Amino acid sequence: MALQAVVRSRSARADDDNITWESALQRQKKPKWTTLIIIDSQAVKNTCNAGVESKGFCHYKCTNGIKRHLAVDTLGLPFFTHCTKASVSDDSGLIEMLSKNMHYFRAKAVNIPKITILLDHGYHLDMITAALQTLYPQIMTKIRFQLAPKLTKAAKLAGGSFPRRALRKSCPW
Predict the structure, then answer these.
(1) pTM assigned to the model
(2) Highest mean pLDDT: which of 21-35, 62-76, 123-137?
(3) 68, 44 in Cβ contact below 8 A?
């Protein structure tokens, strides 16, 4: 008899826990639209078995290979990706990546806050905005571009980073 009471009380508590868990899940649904996308590109060397048509030369980084364009959300998870030749500029690669994923921006309602796209100083906002508006005229009602703040050398040193010369002197290799 006592054992049945314990089993009933445990199952009742388990049911209560499930109800609380389900209601917590219903309250904290992940929003469909992100509020911030961070975009950057990286020129990397290509493998030796890649075709000549997929390679390019990036004069800025002196790299013969490809360029990866990556957009991540606030958690750092990939949102959009795109690969081009290394000779393609950051602006052109960004325009290609966003144009291939334009369906995401077309489906977004205007009454939801704009998506902020954070870029570094290697991008030219006027050229990107003009190119995207020719593809989809209402895009600037749904997104806005923002350049990431540039740290001064004093702020970098205060933040814990140090010059490469100090690194070279302290490294045994």
Answers:
(1) 0.65
(2) 123-137
(3) yes
CA atoms within 13 A on the CB side of 108: 23
Antiparallel, parallel or unpaired: β 143-147 and 78-85? unpaired
For tokens 């890649």, what's the residue? Answer: 50
Q: 136 Cβ partners below 8 Å, 6+ apart?
A: 102, 105, 106
In this structure, the number of other CB atoms found within 10 A of the CB of residue 66 comes to 22
Q: Return d(Cα 50, Cα 65) in angstroms, integer.
A: 9
Q: What is the pLDDT of residues 101-150, one digit of tens each?
A: 999 989 988 888 899 999 988 899 999 999 999 999 999 999 999 998 88
Tell me how far apart the alpha carbons of residues 36 and 144 are, in angstroms, rounded to a whole number. Answer: 10
Could you write out the DSSP letters of every residue in 64-75? EEEEEEEEE-TT
Task: Copy the structure tokens of residue 156.
Answer: 């970098």
Distance CA 82, CA 96 (A): 8
